[in-house]
Amino acid sequence: METKNYNNEKDKAYKKYKEIGKVHCPYLKTEVVFNSNGFRHLIYKNQYVKRDEKTQLFRFRLLSKAPKLLGLTTTIQEKDSYTSTMEVKEYGKKVRRKKKVQYLGFIAIVDEWKVKVIVKKIGGGKHFFWSIIPNWITNKKRDKGRRYVNFTGDLECD
């Protein structure tokens, strides 16, 4: 793909992403914020590894389905949490603290697409959009071998 076309698509997606701002989620009974962490995760797998452009563009196209799903969902399909040591700012200084990191996965069919939206929460902070991926597997036995290769089932990486 041409870099110019990719950059145009990325810029359009970012503009739409910023317009979302936040969405009230009935399941969480609070708002889910669409901050820079979520958009960055659409581009990067982790701090050092960038996703390929085709995968990024696919996620950008699915992005409009995330606020629809979060605004309607009353059930959760996946949940994962762990404790991690991370850098946080306290009184203007960076220090390392243990924080609970929680991931919630919401799955639904939105505009004829079965998608999974992942929401993340760190410590006592706000819930924020983390990712959106197609969720094509509904029956592991029946759908064996059909899974899209860019998705691992790991809520942190996907």
Structural features, described:
The chain has 158 residues and is α+β, with helices and mostly antiparallel strands. It has one domain. The protein contains four helices and six strands; from the N terminus they run H-E-E-H-H-H-E-E-E-E. Strands 1-2-6-5-4-3 form a six-stranded mixed β-sheet, sandwiched between helices. A hairpin with a 4-residue loop joins strand 5 and strand 6. Helix 1 runs parallel beside helix 3. The chain is globular, with a radius of gyration of 16 Å. The two termini are 22 Å apart.
Ordered list of secondary-structure elements with their pairings:
Layout: H1 3-20, E1 22-25, E2 30-33, H2 36-43, H3 53-62, H4 65-72, E3 78-90, E4 93-110, E5 113-122, E6 127-134
Parallel strand pairs: 2-6
Antiparallel strand pairs: 1-2, 3-4, 4-5, 5-6
Helix pairs in contact: 1-3
